[in-house]
UniProtKB/TrEMBL annotation:
Organism: Gordonia mangrovi
Any coiled-coil regions, as ranges: 298-325, 416-472
Lineage: Bacteria, Bacillati, Actinomycetota, Actinomycetes, Mycobacteriales
Residue stretches of biased makeup (Polar residues): 15-24
Sequence segments annotated as region (Disordered): 1-24, 502-541
Protein name stated in the entry: DUF4407 domain-containing protein
Keywords: Coiled coil, Membrane, Transmembrane, Transmembrane helix
InterPro entries: DUF4407
Transmembrane segment boundaries: 60-83, 89-107, 128-148
Amino acid sequence: MHRPATAAPRPNPRIVTTQTRSARMTTDRSSRPVAYFFAQVGGARRDVLERMPGQLPRQAAMGAVIMTTAVFAAVSATYALLIADVTDVLLFAIVFGIAWGIAILNLDRMLVMGMGKERNPKRLIMLAIPRVFLALVIGVVISTPLMLKIFEPEVDAQLQKNILTQQEELRSQLQGSTTASDLAAAKGTLSELRATINAGPTTDPAANSEVKAIQSEIDALAKTASTQKSDYEKARAAALAEEDGTGGTGVAGCAAACVAKQRVANEAQARWDATTQQIAAKEAKKQQTINALRPQLLEESKQAIADAQRDLPHVQQTVNDLQQKVDAANGTSHEVALNNTGLIARLQALSDVTASDGTTRMARLAVAALFICLELLPVIFKVLTNLGKPTAYDNAIDQIDDIETDQALADWHRTQAETQRVKDEEAEELDHAREKRNIRRQVEVAAEQDQAQHHEQTLRLVNKEVAEHQREVVSEALAEWRDAARAAAGVRMNAWRQNVVGNGPAPKHVHDPTGQPMPANGTTPPGPTVTVTSLPDPGTI
């Protein structure tokens, strides 16, 4: 039989939409892993972005800026290690640079994520101020080595100039040192000794020490006289100019100013004349000394040559030693200056270049501002985002945070309730065990008390029975003793009667009713022995 064809079931639109969305999310995750990575670097949640792909570019841009700063920080640290001569191994510098870049990355993420979702402008600014200050510091630290690399040719040229300047300063310091002064004095003495030896024996009075001393005084006075002459000529010219009106007050005639200037000129002339007279007196003394020493000048010259030959090796050795010290100091200072090419020297060279060249200074400021702005960009972007209208991602994060907070609180309450339930069960078990122990202890105490009571009753019963038996034994013993005593008393009475009344001889032995013989002397026979057994030990019953 032919059956009509049934229509295909219509798909559920909700299921189709969910499947399509899941397929789109799977394709988006597989095709944009870098964007998701940058978004996570910027502090975004990937599980939220996978459901809101439209918010991905904004969050990825934040992470890309932070990653760019970290990369520049790694390059800057690597270059700084190499130029500072901390290490010559490139691999070690690269590893340390990567570690430094990771540290800067974490700091930037902390700066951005630490601001949270604050919307209050005042509190947001208060939160941003320390983060901006820290970002400025990080930007300066990162930009400095990079600027050294960017301006490397200018820095190298200035560094060579600084090295030459430093060498000249060190050389000047050495020339003014005590060692250099001693070397110059030793060289002067050495030259004098050699000149004395090379001149040979002579009668020239100029070689005599006394003549030399007088000549030195004359030379000093000549210099003084020359200065005084110059002062006199200046004072005389000023006085003449004042007198003829070509100088000074400009009024011709010798008034008070002219007289004062003439007096100054006269005083200068008097000082010059006095010095000239002293020079003449010294010249006369010099000539007298030469005349007095002329006969012995040859012998003194020979003696001076001998002394010079004796002192020459010692002075030469002194000059050599001092020269070696000066050369060593010069070499050391030269090496120090040449080796001063580290990070501090390069920073100083960069400062010198920017201080002397306005173009370089502006370029340095521009590069520094670029890196500082690059470091400040994530913080500023976060501040502006918080001050602006919340995005769909922000709203979703708020809702998810609220849900997760509620779930966390519910889990916490559930955990606390479970913990309290376990504690209550444990407390109940402890109470039950304690109650069992108390009941067991009470039962044991009751059993012990009952056993003690039974034992006491048993002892009382045994003692009662023993007392009854002892009473019976004592009664029987007393009865037997009473009968025996009566019998004995009758026998003794009969014997006494016989002895008193009949005067007949008393029998030797008298038997008591029990058949036991009694003494014939009339003493009382011993009574029956009654033995009372001891009470049984209560512990053996």
